[in-house]
Amino acid sequence: AVSKARDDGEMCKKTTVAILGGGMAGVAAAQALSNASMHDFVIIEYQDQLGGRVHHTDFGKKPNGDPYTVELGANWIQGLGSPGGPENPVWTFSKKWGLNNTYSNYSSILTYNETGYTDYSSILDEYEDKYNTAAEQAGIILKENYQDMTVRSGLSLAGWKPKRDDMTAQAVEWWEWDWEDAYSPEQCSLVFGTAGSNLTFNQFSDENNYVWDQRGYSRIITSEASTFLTKDDPRVHLNTRVTNISYTDSGVTIHSSDGSCVSAAYAIVTFSLGVLQSDAVTFAPALPDWKQTAIAKFSMGTYTKIFLQFNETFWPHDTQYFLYASPTTRGYYPVWQSLSAPGFIPESNIIFVTVVADQAYRVERQSDEQTKTEVLAVLREMFPNATVPEPTAFMYPRWSTSPWAYGSYSNWPAATTLEMHENFRANVGRVWFAGEATSAQYFGFLHGAWFEGQNAGEQILGLLRDECANIMSTADDCGDLRHYEKLYGSSPLADYTVFDGWEVSSFYSSS
Ligand SMILES: Cc1cc2nc3c(=O)[nH]c(=O)nc-3n(C[C@H](O)[C@H](O)[C@H](O)COP(=O)(O)OP(=O)(O)OC[C@H]3O[C@@H](n4cnc5c(N)ncnc54)[C@H](O)[C@@H]3O)c2cc1C
């Protein structure tokens, strides 16, 4: 069906709900609509497939010459669920679709430095002890609405104070913190960083399963989609890059780079925080200040897996993880994972190493050859008694510059508030937002994207049917999500006195 768009008289395809982005959140939103027999929607997706940041690629060679499949994006099902307790929906889907995955055993770890194997695993226990103290403190801060602090401050108060030149402690800290959050403890909120891991690993369970399915992790997304979309469903517009979203009180018009447009009653934007921060998509009118501020407030991390295949497994066969402490640089090729370990893809001779944040940006900027030289030098330090050959395959993605993601997943810096996040999450009139980053409880995780997509779909259904479907709010304000026009710090102006260490006026005029 084609209708006349209200604004400029151009002909746009007309639909009720335009779902922008076909990752986990977009598919979840579409499913929520379909489940309620609302079939008039389109999904507009940049890439040539559904799945978004759940993204695999061919790598290396099997003995028969076919390539292996490795995951560039999401890799674990994080927090499975416990009997009688809530279950992570991603785990439910994995069981439903028979996804191949294996329990990640974080105790299956050997520790190294530049001289080779060096056992510093006792420092792992020491960190965990101190972290538990910091986590308890985070709970008190959250409950009492005290001032947030960085994870660094929280750890330090709990007695974890690694010296800058204590590289084994730095490596342990990286493995325990940066590896999950893709940011250093200095860059993370104690309250929300702790709450995030608590809500996933203490609510569901502390198990993480690593997905090595050769059909790809996105199989669960495409399989779920196939329950309500037909093959080549005309409502799915692949290879279509949205460039502009115009909205009024009566509808939303979406323009794409190929000149096509869609006019809808509602839109759900599921683009990553990185995409929203990059201005790759413009809004007309410009998003209100409260929304722009919230988009700028949160951070988009980068998590880069560097894959190597060799003609033999020269590292210990039965171990899943190898932690390397560089003598000079924190976060320099620290965590190595063997895919050759039992239960994964034995005989694959594939190992990969992960870097995040500045080290990820650094490897993104350099050539594959340079990076390969660096990682081989590290492997030769770790395994001085092995002959480390040239890899037969080598590859890594560049997430921070991928125009459909601009990073890996979101994070909360210290000193933000739930209200600020709600502003990131809230709809702007008929434009709704959903995805990993709009989840306060599960940001950074695939299940966060799922819950948020479902929620946005259900909220819009409520609006379409004039029913109060707002499961997150009270009956008084169902419909629109709450947002805050003004956000306040925790210190009212009256507090800015000498009694709070504020000795001079905050206000000087330039004249
Ligand atoms: C390296 C990495 C490792 C991760 N590891 C894990 C993990 O182990 N476990 C876990 O639970 N989570 C992990 N995650 C996070 C998880 O992948 C995300 O939370 C989830 O996939 C996000 O889904 P989404 O629908 O919110 O966003 P996306 O998957 O980003 O979906 C948004 C869609 O919008 C499309 N799009 C973007 N711009 C445009 C445009 N202009 N026009 C049209 N379409 C556009 C994109 O192509 C994409 O398909 C990881 C992510 C990365 C990148």
Automatic annotation (TrEMBL):
Cofactor dependence: FAD
UniProt xrefs under PROSITE patterns: PROKAR_LIPOPROTEIN
Top-rank lineage group of the source organism: Eukaryota
Binding site for FAD: V242
Keywords in alphabetical order: FAD, Flavoprotein, Oxidoreductase, Signal
Classification via Pfam families: Amino_oxidase
Any one GO MF annotation of this record: oxidoreductase activity
GO BP terms, alphabetized: polyamine catabolic process
Protein family according to the UniProt entry: Belongs to the flavin monoamine oxidase family.
PANTHER family: AMINE OXIDASE, FLAVIN MONOAMINE OXIDASE
Protein's name in the database: Amine oxidase
Species, as recorded: Penicillium chermesinum
